[in-house]
Design brief:
This protein starts with a strand and ends in a 9-residue tail after the last strand. It is about 30% helix and about 20% strand. It has helices spanning about 20-30, 45-60, 75-85, 95-105, 110-115, 125-130, 165-180, and strands at about 1-5, 35-40, 65, 90, 120-125, 135-140, 145-150, 160, 185, 190-195, 205-210, 255. It has a single domain (about 1-255), classed as Class I glutamine amidotransferase (GATase) domain (Rossmann fold, 3-Layer(aba) Sandwich). Helix 3 packs parallel to helix 5. Strand 8, helix 7 (about 165-180) and strand 9 (about 185) form a beta-alpha-beta unit.
Length: about 260
Amino acid sequence: MGHVIATGGGEIGDGETREIEERVVEAADASHPTVLFVPTASQEPPGYVEKIEQVYGDELGCDVEVLRLLYDPDSEAERERKVQDADVVYVGGGSTRFMMQVWDAYGVDELLREAHADGTVMTGNSSGAICWFQSGFDLSSDAAAELIPSGGLGLYEFDCTCHVERDDFHSLTETFVQRRAEPTISLTANAAFEIVDDRSSCGTVTAWSGRNSNERTSSGRCRRSGPGTDYGRGRSVRRRPSTTIRPPVRGSGVTESIYSTPIR
């Protein structure tokens, strides 16, 4: 049973994504869940770790562990234990491309695929959303932002882009979608896409949002449609025949097109 809750951005320490974090804990279905934080993409800054410990530990009542791969790295046995013991794996934002390279070097990519297959709730923000899908992109660090393709774990046959409420990410998302054959899930800050599926790849997809979601809207309203139809603009997308997409129960700021359209 695979379970992913992918968030498009937002400041976890400021409570912007609180409704989403509460849903993550609920999805773990444990009285005292263990949350494994993976801050590889941002190179393990202590302040980020403290925010996760505050929100998931102090406020939401979870046990929080940290998977360290860069500074004082965990041993192979520690890595395996932490991933296997986690009810939730939370991947932080940063550079998706850098993170995937490090994961590959340490075999963490395979550990996470196994955890997903075993039913661990996989979640994260920005790069921590992109990593579960086929591909996404990072921005270059120079003044003229450029699209840098970044491969993910490929748990689902979608691409994922984040921060599309921002003009730079929105325009690059348009370019990215035009270049790719896979359908793309595009997420604004403070919005999330939840996928629950079984081993036959049947799935339920739900949109969520935290407070103050700042979505970019297109004309028209979302369509409450079945398989093969885009939530945002009614465009047909390719999808496995066995996949089921159900209408979102609540939320805003997410679509499978290049726009983030309010969910009704």
